[in-house]
Amino acid sequence: MTDSPDPDKLEGTGGLTLRQIHEQAQTSLGRDREAQATRSSGASQRSRWQRWVRYVWGRSGRRAHDR
């Protein structure tokens, strides 16, 4: 049986212990998930609108590379 190292005693390159790095990663992940949830609430309607505009604009033949 191997002894697992104590995360409170192992330090990373920045001087933080592995436990501190893990805790910071978890809080960052929580913030990222909250931000993603607030962004995605209205994004589905915008993306549908943007898809429609791109569809109509693409069919009109007025693209920049066609000039």
Core attributes:
64% helix; 1 helix; 67 residues; single chain; rod-shaped; mainly alpha
Q: How would a textbook summarize the main sheet?
A: none
Strand runs, count: 0
Task: Give average pLDDT, whole number.
Answer: 78
Strand content: under 5%
Global Rg: 24 Å
**What is the helix/strand order?**
H
- Structural class call reads mainly alpha
Q: Note the gap between the termini.
A: 71 Å
- Distinct helical segment count: 1
Q: How helix-rich are the residues, as a percent range?
A: 55-70%
Unreliable stretches covering 5 or more consecutive residues: none
- General form: rod-shaped
Helix and strand arrangement:
Blueprint: H1 18-60
Description of the structure:
The structure is a single chain. This protein is an all-alpha fold and 67 residues long. It has a domain at 18-58. Helix content is 64%, strand content 0%. The chain contains one helix and no strands. The protein is rod-shaped and about 65 Å long. The model has no long low-confidence stretch (mean pLDDT 78).
Task: Give a short synopsis of this structure.
The chain has one helix and no strands. With about 70 residues, it is mainly α. The protein has a domain of about 40 residues.
